[in-house]
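Incident log, support desk, overnight shift.

02:14 A customer reports that sequence design results differ from what the structure should imply. Their input is reproduced verbatim below. On-call engineer (initials T.W.) acknowledged and began investigating.
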């Protein structure tokens, strides 16, 4: 079978199995990307979740020696809740970012790529194929940009004409010499909304993200969130969508997805905050384990729930926060709880803080308690 005919049939089959967009590019090294990644590392902008070997990230033949082409795929995901529970006094809610709505996209995209691999092998049994999604070595976005899926926006997202940036990406390296598609022209123009509204200034310049300041990254860490970022997180308990929701290219790109498994359940993606604090590991996995936002486990989510309750100044949650301060074995949670009671500002927390300080052994927690007690003391002196 000629490559042109094979490529046509691969495109048709991809559409048949629910892949919204497919593009092809060469397996040439990503030379410019490598230089950017080297500089990115020198500046300390990496998240730490990336593949450490920059050669593997930018040289497809290190992953598949026979590589000649890369197939890039995109599947759209929903951007608007149809079932949207409201956050109200005494029943405050957190928010998972859109990329975590519905079933874990890693599972769904890997399944689609496996189906596509199987189809190609029925036509070319000797084909060499290697697929990956997100956690693979290659940069999904760099592949998608070169394969014409979309252009790389100033917010570092791949923006497609059809679905905006609301797409998941994956790729397949192959030894088949497919005809490469043309990259799309950058359509961001002079717009810089994403840079201007980033809550933490993580977008340091067009196309460059300091992951260490990005709320999406901060909500996934397993340490106390640095003080300067806590107020910025708001009620986000996983991820951040700000640089997507302000993008003009995403206007009216609502729920264009075909994949029903991405359809969110309001009570899961906007969960009540106080019940989150009570969940055991087993309960967390049973309720949220199918979502991509659960990959780091319950600890970061529960810490973020404390930050969100402080954001709302939810006094009804003080009983839960005091219990964490007094009983929780995790220093990260006690640190955050000590800060949260100070933000909520109820003087009834003073006795709890004083009692906990007398027995607390973790130095970081002690410092946070002392800061909160000093805050309350200063507040009392001002009111005298």
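02:41 Re-run completed on a clean worker. Output:
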């Amino acid at each position: 079978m000629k490559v042109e005919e094979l490529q046509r049939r691969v495109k048709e089959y991809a559409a048949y199995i629910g892949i919204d967009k497919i593009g092809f590019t060469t397996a040439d090294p990503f030379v410019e990307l490598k230089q950017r990644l080297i500089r990115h590392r020198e500046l300390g902008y990496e998240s730490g979740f990336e593949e450490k070997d920059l050669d593997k990230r930018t040289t497809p033949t290190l992953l598949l020696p026979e590589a000649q082409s890369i197939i890039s795929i995109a599947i759209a995901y929903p951007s608007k809740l149809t079932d949207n529970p409201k956050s109200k006094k005494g029943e405050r809610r957190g928010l998972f970012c859109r990329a975590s709505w519905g079933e874990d996209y890693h599972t769904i995209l890997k399944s689609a790529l496996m189906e596509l691999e199987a189809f190609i092998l029925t036509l070319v049994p000797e084909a060499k194929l290697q697929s990956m999604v997100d956690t693979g070595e290659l940069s999904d976005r760099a592949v998608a940009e070169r394969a014409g899926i979309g252009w790389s926006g100033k917010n570092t997202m791949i923006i497609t004409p059809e679905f905006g940036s609301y797409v998941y990406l994956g790729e397949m390296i192959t030894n088949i010499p497919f005809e490469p598609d043309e990259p799309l022209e950058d359509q961001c123009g002079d717009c810089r909304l994403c840079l201007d509204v980033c809550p933490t200034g993580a977008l340091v310049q067009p196309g460059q993200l300091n992951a260490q300041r990005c709320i999406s990254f901060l909500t996934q860490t397993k340490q106390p969130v640095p003080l300067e970022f806590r107020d910025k997180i708001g009620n986000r308990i996983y991820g951040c969508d700000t640089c997507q929701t302000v993008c003009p290219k995403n206007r009216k790109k609502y729920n264009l997805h075909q994949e029903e498994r991405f359809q969110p359940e309001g009570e899961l993606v906007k969960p009540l905050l106080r019940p989150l604090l009570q969940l055991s590991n087993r309960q967390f996995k049973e309720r949220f384990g199918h979502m991509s936002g659960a990959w780091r486990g319950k600890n970061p989510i529960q810490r973020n729930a404390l930050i969100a309750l402080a954001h709302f100044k939810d006094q009804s949650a003080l009983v839960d926060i005091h219990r964490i301060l007094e009983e929780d074995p995790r220093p990260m949670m006690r640190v955050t709880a000590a800060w949260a009671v100070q933000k909520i500002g109820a003087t009834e927390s003073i006795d709890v803080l004083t009692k906990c300080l007398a027995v607390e052994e973790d130095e970081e927690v002690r410092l946070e308690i002392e800061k909160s007690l000093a805050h309350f003391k200063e507040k009392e002196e001002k009111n005298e």
